[in-house]
Design goal:
It contains ten helices and 29 strands. With 523 residues, it is of the alpha+beta class. The protein folds into three domains: 188 residues, Immunoglobulin-like (Sandwich), CATH 2.60.40.1730; 129 residues, Neutral Protease Domain 2 (Neutral Protease, domain 2), CATH 1.10.390.10; 77 residues, Immunoglobulin-like. The protein is elongated, with a radius of gyration of 26 Å. Bound molecules: zinc ion. Zinc ion (ZN) binds next to helix 5.
Length: 523
């Protein structure tokens, strides 16, 4: 798709999705039981009016046959809890206000509801056949169990009051404020977060857990494992890697933004879900072999990128998934060295190339099919864009770009243009064509490389086989007998580029991109 048309499309979607309210804080009171999967909720939504408003629209899945939520009452706090009229169709809860709320005014609405969640809150047996309740909101499935503005660019602080049978433990985001027995086998657990976060990461996990806080947790920042009791030994061992991963990212990016990090074994449909300060991992990730180290690194990296600095819309998902994928590579580079990271990058390059063969979508992709964005463009290609940016500007400028971007957008939202602007400002370079070719165009350079001799000189010819040309630096390593080597750095910007070398030794081997710095497909 042409860049101009894409920018117009993104602009149009932004206008279409213009918001009426800016949610400030959510208070969710939930009652869960073992006698059926119906939940009872009472949600207070505190918001600021962005225009003069006579009605407010929230996202909530209404009753649909046996499932969905039934709203029993809505009350407006500033009007003595006046009961309001509303309609709930097509996952929208349209609430008629008692009277006009002025632009800039704040108000609180309380929604009483109950029902069987058809998605979002997974009430199911875990791999040991035990009953569990796990929220799983990505991309916009939170509104299947809580009334909210279910989009990444309306972030808010929130708290959960969960009443559940006493034999369960309840984990959620932020800090545990209170846990108390209510009698008759029921317990109330209250968790609270004072940081604005997107609905995709607002969760509860309710199950029988074995919990361990790791001794090597940083001061005042308990890092813990919440695993099924049957898996406690293996789970405590596997998830104990979280402390060193957290330390690495805290050193590379910025201090960890939350006051705890719980690593939770769960029934999430994903490999892992980066819920802020309480990450949910696929229950099968616990093996006792620590073979989910990269999964932990990926989800912990999201605590900064995705949760704190969030994408403005899912079209810019690479700002979350590409970052988490590349920061996992950086962690492996630090811990296991160059060979390990090159192996990862090669694998990711292969996955990005394979995906590009069958896709006409660019990384910045405004498709409405959000689940389809969980693809190699968002993850692997996104990671490669960061890797190439790092090679373009150098290690220390790259780290400065990352740190500045995080400082500027933590607690908020950014799109690709915002990241580009930071990268250009920090590096002092015009990176517009870099970002345009790698993020706003589908495809990957298809390179055919030929080598031949002309009058004793080695000629290396790089041919771009795809239609739209790319401009990129490329390294060429020429090797001879007895370890003789010569490395050349060239710029390719045309369909056919030829480079002539007289290395001064008999050439035995020519390698392009020896250190895995370029995203390309060998043709
Ligand atoms: Zn991710």
């Amino acid at each position: 798709m042409q860049k101009g048309l894409l920018v117009l499309l993104l602009f149009l979607t932004t206008c279409l999705n213009a918001q009426d309210i800016d949610v400030q804080h959510y208070t969710f009171r939930l009652e869960l039981s073992d006698s059926g999967s119906a939940i009872r909720g009472n949600a207070t939504v505190e918001f600021k009016a962005l225009h003069n408003l006579t009605s407010v629209t929230l996202d909530l899945t209404g009753r649909n046959g046996a499932t969905g939520m039934e709203v029993t009452g809505i009350y407006q706090a500033e009007r003595n809890d006046k009961r309001l009229s509303f309609s709930n169709v097509n996952d929208q809860l349209i609430i008629s206000l008692a009277d006009t709320i002025k632009k800039g005014a704040t108000e609180k609405l309380t929604i009483a509801y109950w029902g069987l969640p058809d998605d979002g809150l997974i009430i199911a047996k875990n791999k040991f056949g035990e009953r569990t309740f796990f929220a799983d909101n990505w991309p916009n499935r939170a509104h299947h169990w809580i009334p909210c503005v279910d989009r990444p660019d309306d972030k808010a602080s929130f708290e959960f009051f969960v009443t559940a049978p006493s034999h369960y433990s309840v984990i959620s985001n932020g800090e545990k404020v209170e846990e108390k027995e209510l009698g008759r086998g029921r317990k109330l657990t209250h968790w609270k977060v004072n940081i604005a976060l997107p609905t995709k990461v607002m969760v509860i996990g309710v199950a029988r857990f074995a919990v361990k806080t790791f001794d090597d947790s940083p001061p005042n920042l308990p890092v813990s494992a919440w695993v099924y009791p049957q898996d406690s030994t293996k789970g405590f061992y596997d998830y104990a890697l979280a402390t060193e991963i957290l330390r690495f990212f805290s050193g590379y990016i910025a201090p960890f933004p939350y006051n705890k990090l719980a690593n939770v074994q769960s029934t999430t449909i994903f490999g892992g879900m980066e819920n802020a300060s309480c990450i949910f991992y696929d229950e099968h990730s616990v093996t006792g072999n620590r073979d989910s180290e990269d999964l932990l690194a990926h989800e912990i990296a999201h605590q900064w990128f995705g949760d704190m600095a969030s994408e403005k819309s899912f079209a810019h998902l690479w700002l979350s998934e590409g970052f988490a994928t590349y920061f996992t590579d950086l962690y492996f580079e630090k811990k296991y060295g160059q060979e390990a990271v090159v192996a990862r990058l090669k694998k990711e390059r292969g996955e990005a190339v394979e995906f590009a063969r069958h896709s006409a979508s660019p990384v910045v992709d405004s498709t409405a099919n959000l689940m389809s964005l969980l693809n190699a463009n968002s993850y692997q290609k996104g990671a490669w864009v960061l890797h190439m940016l790092r090679n373009e500007v150098g290690d220390s400028l790259f780290q400065q770009i990352i740190r500045s971007y995080y400082q500027q957008y933590k607690g908020g939202n950014a799109d690709t243009r915002d990241f580009e602007a930071v990268a250009e400002k920090v590096s002092g370079k015009d990176l517009s064509s870099f970002f345009a070719q790698w993020l706003y165009r589908p495809g990957i350079p298809q390179l055919a490389v030929t080598k031949y001799n002309v009058r004793g000189a080695l000629v290396v010819q790089v041919t771009q086989k795809q239609k739209a040309l790319y401009t990129f630096p490329i390294e060429i390593l020429v090797e001879g007998e007895n370890g003789k080597k010569q490395r050349y750095r060239e710029l390719v910007a045309t369909a056919k580029s030829s480079f002539q070398y007289r290395p001064g030794f008999a050439v035995k081997k020519v390698t392009i991109d020896p250190d895995c710095k370029l995203l390309y497909a060998a043709y």
